[in-house]
Model the fold of this input.
Amino acid sequence: MSTDWINLGTRPIKKMRPAEFPDISAMMQEPTKAQRGPDAVDILLVNPPAPDGGIWIRSQHRVGRKSRENMVWPQVSLATMAACLHPDYKVEVVDAIATRMSWPEFEKLLETKRPKYYLTQVTAPTLTNDMYGVFLAKAKGAKTIAFGTHVTPNTVNTLTDFPALDYVLRGEPELTLRELVDALEGNTGQNELMESLMQKADPLRTPISLEMVTRGDLSSIKGLAWRCNGQIKVNIDRPFIPNLDELPLPMHHLLPLDTYRMPLIKGPYSFIVPSRGCPAGCKYCIKHVSYNYAVRTRSAENIMAELWSLKKLGINNVMMYADLFTVSREQVMSICKAMIEEKIEMKWMSNSRVDYVDEEMLTMMGKAGCHMISWGIESGSEEVLKRARKGASPDKAKQALQWARNAGIKNFGYFIIGLPGETEETIKQTIAFSKTLPLNVAIFHIAAPYPGTPFFYEVVENGWFRPGTNWEQVDMDKSTVLDYENLSAEQLNYWQKRATREWALRPEPILTILKGLNTWAGFKSAVDAGLQTLSFIRS
Done:
């Protein structure tokens, strides 16, 4: 088949360059309520189908990548935005990744739901794929909205290249989404909770008036990018929500909870977002694009309310999904104390940096039900870590992971091959270091310079982008856009695969994989999951 065609789902679709997506906005008229049908919704919040039918990871403040570890991420960001719209609007969440929905199935769903507003996540590796969903929704009369870590730093480019996209929510999206929908629906100022949140976040805020809406002026909605008379307008940034406790709890029941899976746990799980922001300065990290370096934490009481709501839905496993869960020792200890005192008896996971923990904290976390921590270890080279502004060291990693193991907590380690300053010797150093750590799982990625990160600008300045770079080739499991003078893209691919094989093809990791097979029962099959994992290791 010609390379001019790609397969999205089961049907061949001509691969169009971004600018070739037709501008159909002038042809579209908003359908009447009768035309939309009884199953129609006001806002459809979407994690669209994958480019290849596989499992892809997307979230509000992370990059997109194919999930080599077969981890299906709960779309708690969509559930939170749905809660900010409820009960004033009829909302529905579609997680096409979790439900393995094909593009033809998705198109049929759009025909049934006929949303007035279509909200989608967008990531760099799946950009055209995600915009295909926007195109389908626009063709059915929806106003289309995008958010995420790609459209925030690439706002104008995205709106220019994809005429079917109407609006972009830049940065923290919840209040911008609510204010936009209220304005377009003529419901400004109707919801006291959301109005109060907006005013507390921005005391100098001037609410949008119906007169402004009537004349198509959305310039007062902070954090919004939009089209006006053929021009793209980018409004000033929206201040962050100061008190996350005042956000409504996510509508977890709108998510396909039974489909979410993670290695080394039995049954479904979901996310809890205990904080936003991270003070660390890692130059490769995309999370600062959404929340910057300011840290905002939720109270233990507020988090416990969400945990109990999940418990009532039958969820007994959660991931404390934060930019940095252990950013506040006081918060971590108060959460653990509350979980123990209230006897919630839930198993949970978290992420952490190796330099933001101590032995007492990890012991307390283990007592409270934490059974696994994912660590950003990145490299075994002091020099590579220093150049990446990681702010941690291999010695701290070894100590932190041993404390965790002593507390009965499993260790899930992430490493990056190909950060600036990397050589074949430092890669060998990282591989050797990984084998000395008390790790249950290790994942090796190739460094990816995502737009908006300091790493991206360093790559541009030094000409390290591989010729012909296409962001939809940035699948960290299969390819890279980097081409260093001393390490070619081919070499980076080779070392990433070699690192995976060398770490995994040892007795302890193989035993971990085999023990973990039963965690996938009910999701395809345990055998399929195990074979997929082992086949990648051998490749």
Observations:
- The CA atoms of residues 144 and 166 lie 5 Å apart.
- The longest strand covers residues 370-378.
